[in-house]
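ARCHIVE CARD
Drawer: 12
Card no.: 0347
Subject: one protein chain, sequence and derived structure
Cross-reference: see card 0346
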Amino acid sequence: MFALEFLNFAYNVGEFASRSEVFYQSPFNPLAPGKGVGVGLASGTVPGDLFGGITLGYSPFSLSLKAYRSGDILITTLPDTSSPPSEDNPPEVVDRVKFGAYEGRVSVAKPIGKVKLSTAVKVIYAGAGKYGRGVGGGLDASLLYSPLSRTDVYLGLYNLLTSPVVWSTGKRELALPTADLRLRLRAFGTTYLILGGEYVPDGRGFSFLRDGFLALRAEVWRLSVFGGLVEGKGRLGISYRHRGTTFSFGTSYHYDFGYSFLGSVSFGL
């Protein structure tokens, strides 16, 4: 139904605006949780919907909780269910429902030379009111390789065992395995070029405007400005660091849905 799709949202600004979070030591990063205790909080909105999360990191472990809550989702039917939708057979709204999806995740990371490895186990719960509730889970794995001082490569493999949500109605929702490849190049000073894409074996093939991204990140004093073309949409983010605490804000614009906003804060204890 909807659970897995909505939980794929990026839940912090660095990931949302430029796919850069995996390259930094942060509570949000399952590959490299900071020494001591790190805490990250994130919240955002897309038109009509809210989402947020919290991440706790204590090397080599991290725990994250995510939540998504929709506005009204329309339940429709066709006057003639044997025919496709058309002007003569338009969909009719028969009900409205609010939808919620939640995920808990435990990750463990291990550095081996120039490579950092991580694996994560996730548990998913979703509810759509009287239309049912579902539970499920899955397994992710990732690595970060730094062959040169100016080059970092990230590979993420999500839903390795697929991630089924089994609904109380008997329906099974499966998330296809996804490969996520990213390359970060330091152009000069603290300016970075980040590029890459992801692939899902869903029959559509790879499309740069759908899956790919191209982003830049520049760091000046305590400020970072980042953004670019992410999943076919222009995005922009800014963050400010002060004594181990980072405040971030990001936004994107979609022609049909308008603006989306996301804010996050992370700090060490």
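Annotation on reverse: The longest strand covers residues 92-112. The chain has a mean pLDDT of 87.
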